[in-house]
Every structure is written in structure tokens, then in C-alpha cells.
Write a structure and sequence with these properties.
The chain has helices at about 20, 25-35, 60-70; strands at about 1-5, 10-15, 45-50, 50-55, 80-85, 95. The protein is α+β, with helices and mostly antiparallel strands.
Length: about 100
Amino acid sequence: MEKIALEFTYEKYILSVPSDIAKDIKKIQRAFDKWLYDKSNNHGLWIVKNGRKAAVQFDASDFADFINRTYLNERKEKAKITEEVTEVPAGVPVLYF
């Protein structure tokens, strides 16, 4: 398992993923973004105003869940948030959200 840091505006998390997922993590992040902001998608992360999908609200666990459902559905190893950190450990790749 490999570590990936997920950095949000005020929070940082360590995500543990299988090595083959880690090597494609930027491509997976782009797929997550495309899925997340597709207004035809009723994923439950939408903020609805006046009956319209206005924005999304998600966190690190939603990204891990997307990986598990989309890329690791048939596998025993799963993506998992292992900790919240104040600083990203040296050498750990970072995804910014």
C-alpha cells in the first residue's frame, strides 16, 4: 500500500491505496472531478438551491469511496483514510482539492 496526501483548504489527510492505484492517482483524481461535477449524476454530494444543483460538498472519505467503488470494487485491498495530519510527511505525493 502507498500513501497519498489529500490536501483541502483547511485539512490534510493520508490516503492509503494499492501501488497500482497510486501510480495513476492524478488520472483517478481527474475522473473523480468529472464524475463529481457531472450534473446528470445524482451522487448525493450536491448542494441544491432553488431546485438546482448549485455546488458540491465532499471530503476525503468521498474520494476514497469513489476509488473503492470504481477501481477496487472486486478487490480485497481498499483505499482508506488512515489519518488526518497537520503537515504532509516528506516524500508523500499530494493531491490538492
